[in-house]
Amino acid sequence: MAVSAAAIVVAVAVASISAVAAFFWLLFLDYCPPETCSAENAWIAVCVALAVAALVTVMGGAVTIARIARHTVAWPVACGTLVLCAAACAIGFAGYVSATGI
To answer: Which superkingdom does the taxonomy of this entry point to (predicted)?
Structure first.
C-alpha cells in the first residue's frame, strides 16, 4: 500500500510540476519567428500532453484506490500510472521543442 500511495503522489507531483513549467514556457514564448517556430503547435502539444497526463493520473489513482479498497494488489497500477504520466509529460516537452525549434 505504501508503494501505491508513493507512486500516485509522485505522479501527481510530476503532472503538477510539468503543468507549471509548461505554462511558464508558453508564457515567455515572446519571440517566435514563423520560419522556425509555431507558437500554436507548441500550445497544442503542451495542452494535449497535460490533458493526457491529468486523465491518466486521475484514472490510475481511482483504479489504485479501488484496488486498495478491495484488498488486491495495487502497486503495479500505481507504478504504471506514474510511468504513463511521466511519458505523457515527456512527449509534451518533445512536442514543444519540436514546435519551437529550440
So the answer is: Bacteria
Q: Tell me: the pLDDT tens digits for 15-32? A: 899 889 888 888 877 777
Q: At what angle do helices 75-100 and 2-27 cross, to 10 degrees?
A: 10
Closest CA to 15 of 42, 49, 66: 49
Cβ count near 17 (within 10 Å): 11
Measured CA to CA, the distance from residue 16 to residue 18 in angstroms comes to 5
In this structure, what C-alpha cell is assigned to residue 73?
494488489
For 40-73, give one letter per residue: b (16+ CB within 10 A) or e.
Answer: eebeebbeebbebbbebbeebbeebbebbeeeee
